[in-house]
Design goal:
The chain is of the alpha/beta class. It is built from 17 helices and 13 strands. Strand 12, helix 14 and strand 13 form a beta-alpha-beta unit.
């Protein structure tokens, strides 16, 4: 069986230049390659993991037409919107055509596509026996026009959801879908993400709360900062570390298409009551709460360096308003850290409330502060939760477990 993993065209696939989906695709194909002939497809990036000895093929494709569409969409947005260029640019037509040609050349029998549901028919082409596996890391298929999505779902043999939350939303939105639906959780490398001594220089008279992820409204950073004001007021030694790129997600990727009122309310950060620049809003909030010397925006950290940040933190927090899975809390658990997350999406499946950490309602800074302080005040409980968390990761959230789940689905439909 020949398998192709088709990444998004903007994903960094090979270390050290990986984004979240690129990292998932890379670690998944490494495990799949133990038992199958695998090719990983992506767009040719700069500095792509030179010197790696991989048990699989990595096939890069490029498209000058896509580059032109992206240029026009970025630098001439009004013209691009008027001409329909922006919508076309988002589908990367040149990339998917180039991948389809390579699939034919390599005689691929199973094609695993990341997120881009509207590529399914093009990648299947005229190959009746080729199987299409579509993996969703977002709620898009439950938020798009059902009739439009259905034309592509007819080409999909297996729908892979990154959590039961995504799978259940899909079932509710598309009850007539006849293909197989599989949940395959993301994984964590337990050798890399493990308990131990951090190499970070941490002051002995301080303790830290850690957030890891994109600094964007749906991640609830504003709620975390408001909660931290109460925490810092209760304990002057507290510090907040925010690790991740300061990149605001486009509203049409989530906020404007969501049916969740809490998510739609985030429109206040996109030209609404709170302005149109989330980063400026956070900086102003920190200044108004007199937290300037206690909150640190670390920025993006190489993935291999993240374990040191987890190990140095007292508590790992994810205050998201919307979350398909919640990889940061799983990485924190792998490092034996207690975690606090919101009761949304996939985090209801990753965190066991009262056993591996605490869960609270989203957009409630008071409850978030109380949950964090309860763990800090009881170090024995926090340590026990860290141990339980690592045990849970070993049982459920490994790359090997994910690959075995996928291989079983491939074999069933092939």
């Amino acid at each position: 069986m020949k398998i192709a993993m088709v990444a998004q065209p903007y994903d960094g696939l090979l270390p050290p230049n990986q984004n979240s989906i690129g990292l998932i695709a890379y670690n998944t194909v490494l495990e799949l390659a133990r038992e199958a002939d695998v090719t990983l497809f992506g767009k040719r990036p700069a500095g792509r993991g030179r010197g790696l000895d991989l048990p699989l093929d990595v096939s890069y494709v490029a498209s000058a037409s896509d580059d032109l569409l992206q240029f026009v969409s970025c630098y001439y947005p009004r013209w691009a919107k008027w001409l329909g260029v922006s919508e076309k640019a988002d589908t990367y037509p040149g990339y998917v055509r180039a991948v389809a040609r390579e699939l034919d050349r390599k005689d691929i029998s199973v094609v695993h596509v990341m997120n881009y549901w509207n590529w399914s028919g093009r990648l299947r082409g005229g190959h009746r026996r080729r199987r299409i596996v579509l993996e969703m890391h977002a709620e898009w298929l439950s938020q798009m026009d059902a009739a439009q999505v259905r034309t592509q779902l007819d080409q999909v043999d297996v729908l892979v959801a990154v959590s039961h939350h995504i799978a259940n939303l899909f079932r509710a939105a598309h009850p007539a879908y006849q293909g197989k639906i599989v949940t395959a959780y993301n994984g964590v490398d337990q050798e890399t993400f493990s308990p131990g001594q951090s190499r970070l220089a941490v002051r002995s008279d301080e303790w830290s709360i850690l957030f890891v992820g994109r600094v964007s409204p749906e991640k609830g950073i504003h709620t975390l900062i408001e909660a931290f004001a109460d925490i810092a007021g209760a304990d002057d030694r507290a510090r907040l570390w925010i690790v991740g790129s300061r990149t605001t997600l486009r509203p049409d990727f989530l906020v404007t298409i969501s049916s969740d009122p809490l998510v739609r309310a985030l429109s206040r950060f996109y030209g609404g009551a709170e302005g149109d620049d989330y980063q400026t809003y956070l900086d102003t909030l920190i200044r108004n709460l007199n937290l300037g010397d206690k909150v640190r925006f670390v920025g993006r950290v190489p993935h291999e360096d993240l374990p040191d940040w987890y190990r140095a933190a007292r508590v790992v927090v994810n205050p998201s308003v919307s979350e398909s899975f919640g990889i940061s809390v799983v990485e924190g658990m792998a490092c034996a850290r207690p975690v606090v997350g919101t009761r949304v999406g996939g985090m209801l499946e990753t965190i066991v409330d009262g056993e591996t950490g605490r869960t609270v309602e989203p957009e409630r800074p008071d409850l978030l502060a109380d949950a964090i302080l309860s763990l800090v005040a009881n170090p024995e409980l926090a340590s026990a939760m860290g141990v339980k968390g690592r045990e849970r990761v070993a049982k459920i959230f490994t790359w090997r477990a994910r690959a075995h789940r996928l291989l079983a689905a491939y074999r069933e439909v092939a």
